[in-house]
What does this fold into?
Amino acid sequence: MLRDITVGQYYPADSLLHRLDPRTKLIATMVFIIIIFMVKTPLQYAALGLFVLLSIYLSKVPVRYMIRGLRSILFILIFAFVINLFFTPGTPIFQLWRIRITYEGLRLASMMLIRLVFLIMGTSLMTLTSSPIQLTDGIEKLLSVFKRVGFPAHEVAMMMSIALRFIPTLLEETDKIMKAQMARGADFESGRLLKRAKALVPLLVPLFIASFKRADDLASAMEARCYRGGKGRTRLHELRYAKRDVVVFLVLIVYFGGVFLLGRL
Amino acid sequence: MSITLKNISHEYNPGTTFATFGLKDVSLHIADGEAVGIIGPTGSGKSTLLQHINGLLRPTSGELEVEGIRITSEKQNLSELRKNVGLVFQYPEYQLFEETIAKDIAFGPLNLGLAQEEVDQRVKEAMDLIGLDYESLKDRSPFEISGGQKRRVAIAGVLAMNPSVLMLDEPTAGLDPLGRSQLLETLRTLHKTKKITLIIISHSMEEIASISQRIILMKNGEIRMDKPVEEAFEDVEFFEECGMDVPVISRVMYELRKAGKPLSRNYASVEEAREAILQAVRHA
It folds into this structure.
């Protein structure tokens, strides 16, 4: 169950997407998200779908791995689909007593579903192909434009990278405590909603305590190594755009421009 | 009833680039009431093995029978198994969560569906067994006592389930010397008086030698050695090759023998070694 969560994880491999500058990937992902919510016609969706598939192919991340990541948000997907399907007014195409499915509802629900799937795939592709350190460096560089108006770019990036870094640790810890409680006869898998929620207490309390303790330890460890924020900090690997980044940017402009124009046809 | 493993293999993250073998073709039989010590370098599959015996992990291939219950790669309900097989994880104090110590220890028995009086009785018994004073500690928070006591509370939580097999993953890690020897003494008494099967993982050879009747050495997910404790530490070179060390006393005996002293073997306990050395000296 826990192994299904792939959001925020890094999948080490050697591919074009892995070698790209993290800033390129960050910008591309952001543009991709905006485009997802702008496109309306099926043809545009097909084009974006092709884009997602191509990116997955280029990233060398197994498709199965990506689909497993979707499984963890299956509930949200179904929920969004059902709500939109049944509660959109319009021309009915199917009616049974009070339950009514409209043409508009079906259209909206499918669109929402595709958008969410693309959104998750696109963003997890970014984290899967960039290590947490690369991501932070990228975010920090991109945000440092706002440093002049007093925006704490380094601190924000550091917090983000710590959060990302601890997702697997937290999952591991959850797994461990879950097993320990299961060895004491705890049952996390059966029963009604309320019973299941109650069953989580023996899991969440130790998890919270451990997290606070870990945060405290981490802060001490950073202070012990004289961490004092980003001021005057240099780095071992400076980010530099390569030729492939320029090529990717050009391809993206042409591709997304094309997708945009498809809607005008 | 006993524990039998037949050609157990376990693969972590199958089908991805992270795929690794936790266990490779492990076969093993542990009789009732045995005290078994498992040693091996980090990542050798010791914890994975214990989790299989408790049914927390299912084998990728092979099957095992624990206390009359068969476990294969198929999903099944294992609550009956967990009643009989207690597993104390590494640093078990991190799993404490209740408001009071008594309530935390009662978590396991309550999950077994026992009546309240029976649960209270078990909590009291478990605290007695592990050496915690029931009256003064039962209503205190498990978060305000010392690390060694927390460890005892966590172990009591497993003991209160009355298991016939007790497995402990590095029970003394991080305890001070006094806490260590007290805990080991408790476990030894427990094994003797309650006749339970004891399986212990430890990195301390002295500890393992002092508590187990049989030693299993694991490396890279395989069992590399499985001998009674009296014979286990004879082959010092083999231990070195596996990246392990023998108890200090066995090392001393080994060096003495290498220097040509008339000693027959490397004892694992200091008392026996003392006798042997005295005898050798007298003969000379």
